[in-house]
Amino acid sequence: MKSSIKKAGLFLFLIVGIILAQPPQNRTERAVERLKEKLTLTKEQEKNIKVILDDQQEAMTKEREQHQGDRDAMRAAMIKHRDEADKKIEKLLTKEQKKKYEEYKKERQEMMKNRMRESN
Fold it and tell me: Closest Cα to residue 60, out of 46, 78, 48, 34?
């Protein structure tokens, strides 16, 4: 059980590292572009999701500055901000888009798990 928790913690830490290694604007634009393709977003949805993701990036930058070196605090903050952004995004989506969004999140999670396995 502890091993699973440690692996999950390492997984989240690596995700944060990968995300933080990219310029924030590029991350947001790429994320919106992926969602646009996967969910067939309207222009209004694209604009609103970009604002949500920009806000999330700004909040994470502040958290990173506040919790330097504290992995547990950073992981908790990342999860909190990701969940908040997900809820806001889901409010903008149609029923069909929500289904596709859930599938997309599962695909991304599986892709990250595979990266973790490959790096071990």
Answer: 78
Distances in Å between the Cα of 16 and the Cα atoms of 1, 10, 75, 82, 86 are 23, 10, 8, 11, 16
Q: What is the pTM of this model?
A: 0.72
Q: How many Å apart are CA 82 and CA 78, to the nearest integer?
A: 6
Dmax over CA atoms of the chain, in Å, equals: 45
Q: What is residue 25's predicted lDDT score, i.e. its pLDDT?
A: 62
Please write the tens of the pLDDT for every residue from 33-78.
999 999 999 999 999 999 999 999 999 889 888 888 888 888 899 8
Number of domains in the chain: 1
Residue 56 structural domain: 2-119
- What's the mean per-residue pLDDT of the chain? 84
Please provide the size of the chain in residues. 120
